[in-house]
Amino acid sequence: GVLGTVYRLGRFEHEFLLNAGVSVPTGSIDEKDFGPNRTQGELGLEYDDQLGSGTVDLLPGITYLGQSANWAWGSEMIPTVRLGQNGNHYRLGNRYRLSTWTARKWTDWLSMTGQIDGQLWENINGADPKLNPAAAPTKDPNRQGGKRIDLLLGLNLYAPSGILKGQRLAIEAGAPVYQSLDGPALQMDWLVRVGWQWIF
After folding, report:
1. Cα 63 from chain centroid (whole Å)
2. What is the pTM of this model?
């Protein structure tokens, strides 16, 4: 689960937001499944297949927002800072995300967006003793890091009045323009994000 707050500096054409959040460990880090040889029984899944980090994670950040009559733009940096080690004797690597975007308002109910989103994630500190890195490189804690830059285009639909007043539907799609992984892992080919917001 994630808890957070935002502090706004100024309410003009240019403003900054200070973000502070914390992620508490609610996802499992002990997921298991049968491997290729089912006679071995259930085996612990690899780091990327677990549902959580198992640690308390800090989510600080800063956001810049600018706007004019029909344009809006901004940039945001939000790292994920892991604290301590989890019950399986490892800590996922810190993550750093920097995104920059612009939006064009066409009507009261339609706008389009463009975004460049960069992410960097570090290797794992420590190791799960149940995972043998000699058996598969995907179990090696020193080969879990990587970096990626995504280019995305989006569409926002907003209801300024009527029975749906205050509701917004956002659809964003894109693909990586740069990707580098420290070890063998599934690369991202494309991504789609869909969000719904109700302001009242």
Report:
1. 15
2. 0.85
